């Protein structure tokens, strides 16, 4: 929030805290209007940690505010950021019966607040450490339902002891059934909105960097909008096992990776990022089958649209179901003949392919079902893109289609180079053409002035960027420890295999370890490896690209680099020279 907002809320908090220390008859003015202003400001912008701590301290200590004002404050404790452990301890310490304790209705409200903010506590284990205190408060009937709800969130296998089981059984026999609790979903939604707005405005990338890109947000209950996807819940946990619900940071996740127990409803992976990471790092065939069966059953039974953020861990499960047209019911439920629904489905396909690509990188070998799965999704997306261009030829739609096509693959780069090569040839033809005698009278001749200079310079910049990467090999350098030389080692491997096939095992004393550089080729020749010049290596790379159907890159190089305009393949003379040097 802005400085003025912080100052305004801080001032209101100070006024309310000061008034709480003075009996009502001695105050110069009623405090209720100030309380109402504070509640409105907290609902609109949330409370920073200092203001939240001051108000919780006010609620948990003896004061002179009326119960109505205290209730308003307790119901408007919207934290703008994480809730500190000190605030939680303040609330736990105020619970129970005694002269210095808050009224039982206020205690009940504060316990409900703990349930609502449980997912934003900076260290949720603080409530687990307070488990004995909370359990012993079950005798207080007025706050027993709220205590039970908090205990339901924090109970772990280690907390289940025989004496506690006996105590709960006795309470259930003595008191009968306590009323069920229903969380205030509107309050929770407002809290999430405040937290998201504060995070975007004040934390952003810095907060993400501090967390190392790792964030856990456990959901204790759903939003007002009904969802068919269950939350992460783990049943039958043992003392030796660890549940995902207990993981709150990256360190705990890594240390307990092998101990974590699979949750009861694995399909929660569709909405839970932590479970997605877990199945990515610990793949489980049975888990994928269960997810696949749930998806198939859900899509066949439900005719309603279901928003799914498909995780990478559903790759194996979904791929095997494509022959059963698993996405047809999904398309039928989403598409309503509007461009908006078509673009939403296209974005879904884009995200699905992106997740699946990340999953595919973790495999040692490409699964046999992966290529047809990718092909099926891409073909369907292409048909959808064609429909969109025909029904809605707008800039927004075109950008959405281009965004889908922007996959990081050599085939896409090759096609792009082919387009640039065609443009370059036509630019050159247009700029060097002379006015033809057969040209229609009055027609504008094509000259170099037809295109603005800055336009030509920008296009040439694109060409030079690609030439620097592909031909000048600045993209193949190994000076960066993370560089892999674009894996162009495959071209050398083919030449080495050819030499071995032709001259036998004695032809090469060693193979190139990769990545390939000008100096590495010289060292290779000196140690009895393939005798290959830097120039011939680069030509071999272009030749291999052309042989594998990626002719766009060699074509652009021939049309851009003068040295290549006479040809782009490894010459016979170069091959003969290399062969003679090996012998």
Automatic annotation (TrEMBL):
A cellular component term, taken from the record's GO annotations: inner kinetochore
Pfam families according to UniProt: CENP-I
Source species, domain of life: Eukaryota
This protein's UniProt keywords: Centromere, Chromosome, Nucleus
Glycoprotein is among the record's keywords: no
GO biological process: CENP-A containing chromatin assembly; mitotic sister chromatid segregation
Record CDD domains: CTF3_NTD_HEAT (cd22647)
Compartments (UniProt record): Chromosome, Centromere; Nucleus
InterPro entries: CENP-I
Protein family membership: Belongs to the CENP-I/CTF3 family.
Name of the protein this chain belongs to: Mis6 domain-containing protein
